[in-house]
Structures are given as C-alpha cells and as structure tokens.
Amino acid sequence: VQLQASGGGLVQPGGSLRLSCVASGSSFKINTMGWYRQTPGKQREFVAMMSSVSDTLYADSVKGRFTISRDNAKNTVYLQMSSLKPEDTAVYYCKYSGYVVENGIQNESNYWGSGTQVTVSS
Fold first, then answer.
1. Residue closest to 97 by CA, chosen among 2, 32, 10
2. How far apart are CA 100 and CA 108, in angstroms?
3. What does the angle CA 33 – CA 48 – CA 2 come to, to the nearest 5 degrees?
4. pLDDT tens, 45-81?
5. Three-class SS of residue 74?
6. pLDDT of residue 113
7. Distance between CA atoms of 100 and 86, rounded to whole angstroms?
8. Listed residue (42, 45, 77) closest to 61, CA to CA
9. 8-state DSSP, 86
10. What is the CA radius of gyration of the chain?
11. What angle do CA 4, 96, 5 make, to 5 degrees?
C-alpha cells in the first residue's frame, strides 16, 4: 500500500484546511485510514481514524473541530480541519492499517505516507 498525502499549508488561527490521502497498490477488505501528527522533539500522536465500515475515532484535542471522511471508491481519506489553532501546527501523516484474520489470529499491517506540513500562524 502506498499513501500520498496532500493539502497542507499555512493558515491563520481560526482558519480551515482539508488534507487528503490517496491509497494505491494492495488493499485489505478490513482496514482503517487515519491521521497522525508530529512536531519536532515530540512523538507522533493520533489525530483521527475511520474504519472501512465508517466507524470514527478522534483525539480529544480535535473533537468538534476536525472531521474525517472517506471516499472508498477513490481510496481516499480526508481530514477537514476547522477552527485551527497554533498548537495544531505539525507535520500530518496518513496511516493505513489492514487486518487479516488467519487461524483465529488477527494480523495487522501498517503503512505510512509522507507527511504534509500544516502551519497555523498569524
């Protein structure tokens, strides 16, 4: 699975951006697609994810401001970010997780895309 993220940029506080991530190559019937972010000197942190059956999960820090969505026909996941704050500044990474159950054991495969920089500043 190859992932290509795009949509980052510079935005003023209170503004909006939409990130996109396109998956290509192999695919898994059961999967999740999501977003993580990382700032220098800190660990990569979870932002949001959406499963192949549309279950969603958000980090508390972005609930009510960010919305994740998917277009399965296009193998694309989006992250609509609104009411952006300076602390949202980070490199945002797309993650694809595929799941296969074999002999009663769930196997997980994870793939990461290259990051896209989001800078929130006046």
1. 32
2. 7
3. 30
4. 999 999 999 999 999 999 999 999 999 899 999 999 9
5. helix
6. 93
7. 39
8. 45
9. G
10. 15
11. 20
For 70-109, b where at least 16 C-beta lie within 10 A, e where not — what string?
beeeebbbbbebeebeeebbbbbbbbbbbeeeeeeeeeee
- Token couple for 96: 């694809």
According to the model, what pLDDT value does residue 26 have? 80
Cα–Cα distance, 92 to 111 (Å, whole number): 14
Q: Nearest-CA neighbor of 27 among 93, 68, 76?
A: 76
At 27 the pLDDT is 83
Residue range 14-28: mean pLDDT, rounded: 93
> Strands 116-120, 9-11: parallel, antiparallel or unpaired by DSSP?
parallel
Output helix, strand, coil percentages for the chain, rounded to the nearest 5: 5, 60, 35
Residue 110 has pLDDT above 90, yes or no: yes
> What are the pLDDT digits (tens) for 75-88?
999 999 999 999 99
Spatial contact of 7 and 19, defined as CB atoms under 8 Å apart: yes
Strands (E), 1-122: 2-6, 9-11, 17-24, 30-38, 45-51, 56-58, 66-71, 76-81, 90-102, 105-112, 116-120
